[in-house]
Every structure is written in structure tokens, then in C-alpha cells.
Write a sequence for this structure.
């Protein structure tokens, strides 16, 4: 649940709309047949969701001790109004179902059975993120729980749930098995004198060496366009978290899209985020570094700038061709390579009239030195817009993997998934089409009153294994219904 604007003066007007993904008053989708997004040559594609309403925003995690065990999260427009979760134990061939029980308890007041109450307190939930502990024994799920507390105002909790069986079952929530509260915000319209207050767009990273859990988010104060970035850290498997550290202040404002990764031995953590220039959303990117497991952070350093950031948030902005839809814009995606000891950041930018991908990098010893960063095109030569990028790096070989929602196969009209890999530290990439057929994201979306709102989610997910890259995204399911609200979670894998 993120947003994109072109001027900070607009931010206060519609910022709450970015958060309001409430799935109430939804229609029931008729059972109309439609072909799934079949895989192209050399890729495996599986429809995980396979239900009758929408899911989007699809983080993915793999068990470090069992490469057959993946979990995928999603915003869920089924009756529970919360955060969906699916797990596989056979490498992605089969998955636990989305309905009736494929959601994290303790987020909302609902289940998928109207006659059975949920164990949470929220009116709706969203912004899912998933991870595994470094020993594989625990799966983690971070998600917001929102309560409507007044006109355009939300009470928000950032919650963490855990699973001890690979993501099959999760803490029950409520008094019996409460979820961990990472952060809480009482947006009743009193604090700071505004109703435009909430937390947004969390992300999570678990260090593969020591198991420290980093969770970061933007916190909108409702005070103009002020949205500081915060980070909280857990050293006890998610039972407790540190007091959130505020990373940005003063002139570094209007921030979003924060993510954290760590270096090869876990001794340094790197936080990236975008924006920060008054008067424009997503104009620049920043990096901050911690050398004490997230207890303190360096002053943010600007390492790259956008020429024309992708902004897919109609009616306020939509700066690519085609039918308007809400989807991923431009934001920095970090990954660390223990082989070359470099921090890499991938992002999308509109150059020459089309959205293209770029790769910034710096040596780990000089990450906060802006002069040490270099930016190169990432898999240049696409025939259409590449609207989104997700990236990961295989720790043993340094192979860089990415996926992108790509319009190169349809005269820049339909969205497909492209996978790319680099074996030479990003100097060159080989790409391949993953989906056999694309779709127009302006014609599909999520329930909104008696109709639908075109929204394919603001992020996807990818993980790198020694012999496989696996990823998740939102595509059109078998039964899109009328209106077309059956956006499903898809899983894909390739052999690099």
C-alpha cells in the first residue's frame, strides 16, 4: 500500500487513499472461464491463489534449510480483509489454499466465514512481508492492522506473526496467542492536529548469519508531507523489538519505499529509501548504514537520482501509456553480494519515453560515500516499459537475479513477467520471458463498491537459490468474474 505523487503539495490531499485498501462491500465474482498466465519456455508458473477474489503485493521467502519450502504473502480481498499466506513443501508445485484458511489470524476482526469472528481488531489489513529465521525453524509474517477511527483516519498496528511448521499454520492471535506489536500509531486526528496519520509500506529482512530481524517503514504524521523512515530490530526471534529508530529528519522528508539488507557477516546493515527532495515524489534515493545491528544509523546519503520516476497512482499521476492502473512505480531495491563485497540497488526510471531498469552499486566499505556509487543500465534494450523490478543475489556465487513487469512483448500494451540474471557483477544480463501471455492491468483489479479498481499491487518478490531463482507476482486468474476482480498470486521459477 504505497503511493506516488509528483508534487508534495498534493500529498496531504490524497495520501490516505494510498492506505485505504479496505475490501468491504465487495461483489461476488461469477465463475467465468479464462486462461491462466501459462509459462513460457524454460520457466515454471503456478497459480497459487486460484480463488474468486483478488490478491496482490506478493513477497516471497524460502526456508534456508529446506529449499522445497517457500511462503508467499499477499493483500487479500476475501472476506477476512487481511493478509493472505500460502506455503509449499514441494518446491512450488502445490500450495496450501487461499480459502478458507489461507490468511494470517490476529490481523482483522474477520475470518472467511461470516459466522465466525476473527481474533484481530482491525477493520482491514495490508502491506505483507515474509521471511524465515536463519535456522529455518521459524517463518515470519509482518502485516499492518488498520482500524478506521474517523473520517480518513486510521489507528494502525504493525504486527509480526510466526509459524513453526514452515508457514502452514500461524499464531492464533487474540489473548491466547497474541501477535508481536512492532509499532503502533494512534491516528485519531488529535496528535499533530491532523487526520492524515498512519504507517505505510513496511519491509522485513532477517540476517542469514545471526538471525536479527530488521523491519522498516514510513510513518506519515499528517503534518504536511512529513513521513520519516523508522527501523526496529529484534534479536530474540520476534518476541520483542527495539524502540523504533527514526532515520530521517529535518529537510529529508516525504520518504517512502524503505528496505534493509545486511552484508556477508551481518556486521553492517544498509537501509535504502527514496524521495527526500521537497516538491517531488521519488526524485532521489538515499542510503544509511548501521554497524551496531540497527541500534544507530548514519545520516542518509544521496546515492542516485531519478530522471522521471514511474508514477502509477491514478487519478493523481499515471505517466506511462495505456489504460490507467495503480501499480509499482520507481523505488530502490537493495541486495548485497558477499562475493564482490558490493551493495547493489536496482530501480526503474523513465528515460527516452520508456520505463527502463538501472543498477547502482558501491563497495561495502564506501557505501556512505556518494562519490563511490556508479549507475549502469540494467539489461538495456527492452522494447517496452519495464515498470517494476525486484532483485536478489545468490550468496554463494554472486549471481544477480531480477524480475520485472514488462510490456516488451505486446507493443507496449500488456504486462508480462521477465526474468534476468547476471554472472558478471551486473556488467551484462541475460533475460527471458516467464509468462506466455500478458494482460492489460487497467482492465483488472480489486473490489471497490459494486465495481472494481485497477490495482495490481505495489511490489512483487524474488529469492535466489544456488540452482534456481523463484519469484511471485500478481496475474489474472482462471475466473476473473464480472467485474474482473480475480487477480491471483502466481509463483514462478527458472534455472539460471
Amino acid at each position: 500500500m504505497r503511493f506516488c505523487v509528483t508534487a508534495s503539495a498534493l500529498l496531504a490531499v490524497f495520501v490516505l487513499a494510498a492506505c485505504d485498501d479496505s475490501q468491504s462491500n465487495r461483489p461476488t465474482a461469477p465463475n467465468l472461464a479464462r486462461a491462466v498466465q501459462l509459462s513460457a519456455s524454460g520457466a515454471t508458473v503456478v497459480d497459487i491463489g486460484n480463488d474468486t477474489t483478488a490478491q496482490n503485493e506478493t513477497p516471497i521467502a524460502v526456508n534456508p534449510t529446506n529449499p522445497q519450502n517457500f511462503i508467499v504473502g499477499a493483500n487479500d480481498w476475501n472476506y477476512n480483509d487481511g493478509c493472505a499466506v500460502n506455503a509449499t513443501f514441494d518446491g512450488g508445485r502445490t500450495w496450501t489454499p487461499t480459502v478458507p484458511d489461507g490468511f494470517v489470524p490476529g490481523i482483522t476482526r474477520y475470518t472467511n466465514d461470516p459466522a465466525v469472528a476473527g481474533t484481530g481488531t482491525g477493520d482491514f489489513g495490508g502491506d505483507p512481508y515474509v521471511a524465515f529465521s536463519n535456522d529455518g525453524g521459524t517463518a515470519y509474517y509482518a502485516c499492518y492492522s488498520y482500524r478506521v477511527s474517523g473520517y480518513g483516519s486510521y489507528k494502525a498496528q504493525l504486527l509480526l506473526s510466526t509459524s513453526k511448521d514452515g508457514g502452514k499454520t500461524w499464531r492464533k492471535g487474540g489473548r491466547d496467542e497474541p501477535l508481536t506489536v512492532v509499532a503502533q500509531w494512534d491516528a485519531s486526528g488529535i496528535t499533530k492536529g491532523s487526520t492524515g496519520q498512519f504507517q505505510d509500506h513496511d519491509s522485513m529482512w532477517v540476517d542469514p548469519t545471526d538471525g536479527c530481524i530488521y523491519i522498516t517503514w514510513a510513518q506519515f504524521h499528517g503534518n504536511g508531507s512529513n513521513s520519516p523512515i523508522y527501523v526496529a530490530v529484534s534479536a530474540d526471534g520476534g518476541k520483542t523489538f527495539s524502540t523504533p529508530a527514526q532515520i530521517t529528519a529535518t529537510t529529508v522528508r516525504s520518504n517512502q519505499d524503505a528496505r534493509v539488507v545486511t552484508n556477508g557477516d551481518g556486521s553492517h546493515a544498509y537501509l535504502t529509501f527514496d524521495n527526500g527532495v521537497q516538491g517531488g515524489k521519488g526524485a532521489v534515493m538515499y542510503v544509511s548504514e548501521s554497524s551496531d545491528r540497527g541500534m544507530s544509523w548514519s545520516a542518509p546519503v544521496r546515492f542516485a537520482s531519478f530522471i522521471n520516476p514511474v508514477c502509477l497512482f491514478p487519478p493523481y499521476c499515471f505517466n506511462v501509456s495505456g489504460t490507467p492502473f495503480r501499480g509499482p512505480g520507481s523505488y530502490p531495491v537493495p541486495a548485497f553480494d558477499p562475493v564482490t563485497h558490493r551493495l547493489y540497488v536496482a530501480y526503474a526510471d523513465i528515460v527516452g519515453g520508456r520505463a527502463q531498469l538501472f543498477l547502482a552499486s558501491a563497495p561495502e566499505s564506501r557505501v556512505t560515500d556518494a562519490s563511490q556509487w556508479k549507475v549502469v543500465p540494467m539489461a538495456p534494450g527492452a522494447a517496452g516499459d519495464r515498470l517494476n523490478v525486484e532483485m536478489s543475489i545468490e550468496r554463494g556465487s554472486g549471481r544477480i537475479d531480477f524480475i520485472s513487469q514488462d510490456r516488451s512483448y505486446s507493443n507496449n500494451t500488456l504486462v508480462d513477467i521477465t526474468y534476468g540474471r547476471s554472472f558478471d557483477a551486473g556488467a551484462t544480463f541475460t533475460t527471458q520471458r516467464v509468462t506466455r501471455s500478458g494482460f492489460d492491468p487497467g482492465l483488472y483489479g480489486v473490489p471497490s463498491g459494486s465495481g472494481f479498481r485497477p490495482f495490481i499491487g505495489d511490489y512483487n518478490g524474488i529469492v535466489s537459490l544456488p540452482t534456481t531463482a523463484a519469484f511471485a507476482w500478481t496475474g489474472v486468474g482462471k475466473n476473473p468474474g464480472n467485474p474482473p476482480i480475480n487477480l491471483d498470486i502466481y509463483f514462478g521459477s527458472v534455472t539460471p
Remarks:
- The two ends are 31 Å apart (CA to CA).
- Confidence is low (pLDDT under 50) at residues 1-37, 189-195.
